[in-house]
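for the writeup, i need someone to sanity check this before i put it in the appendix. the sequnce is what the collaborator sent (i think, or maybe the updated version? ugh). structure was predicted straight from it, no edits. if anything looks off just tell me and ill rerun, i have time this weekend
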Amino acid sequence: MKIIKVFNNNVALTKDSNQTEMVVMGKGLAFQKKIGDQIDTEKIEKNFIAPSEGFAAKLSELLDEIPYEVMVLSKDIIDMATKELQTELSESLYLSLSDHIHFALIRLEDGLPIKNALLWEVKKFYKQEYQAATKALQMIEARTGIQLPEDEVASIALHFLNARQDSSGMEETLKMTQIFGDVTNIVKYHYGINFDEDSMNYSRFITHVRYFAYRMLRGELSDDQHGTLYEQVKQQYPESYACTKKVQAYLKPTYQMQMTKDELAYFMIHIHRVSYREKNI
């Protein structure tokens, strides 16, 4: 394994026999090393494939500011989250998570904790990511002795969401999360109910809202092909229709998106299911 770039005494960019570029980490691993030298593989504590050409430059810049211990901690958290979520996470998460954890520790030390406005939504709609992020905070406290606030659980969970291989970016993730929360609140306050979040109907409802928000933000809403279904459901579930119109009234000015009759019909069906069960328990 040959060195192609030395970041600092503990981190280097290498190339293996298959010409694969890999970031390797370990105490003193690159001390007094230069380009072309071989790495002592016994000193490698962590390693991962460099995802892009620009990754090395960004990592080099980050290492000027962030302690080695935080970088190692971030890699351990990513390894934990990969197992917990049973999915591959983008290697770019290493940069964003290291930077976030380092900044969060500094902010807390300076008495400047930041509130996460999406704490409730993340906790309710992304339970797996939230649980993994909770473990991440426990790992941070165990390594640093610093207990970060619960708001940071939501922030780290959002980083996990954004790093999923099928993710479409943090901005879209944040918008989708906001939509989940707002639509759920509209239904909750319209009917004056609290949801049983363990119920199958609630799970179906959230899945529909998530899929709808994803397609809406990508401009992939279905065409009106079931106008008859819309009229039928509208007549059969008038209360759900009234609630769905509130959802439509929220989405149109907020996201400049008009729901089709198909979407209105499916929303009415799911809203009826989730509200009927809660009102009749």
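The chain has eleven helices and four strands. The CA atoms of residues 133 and 170 lie 16 Å apart.
thx in advance!!
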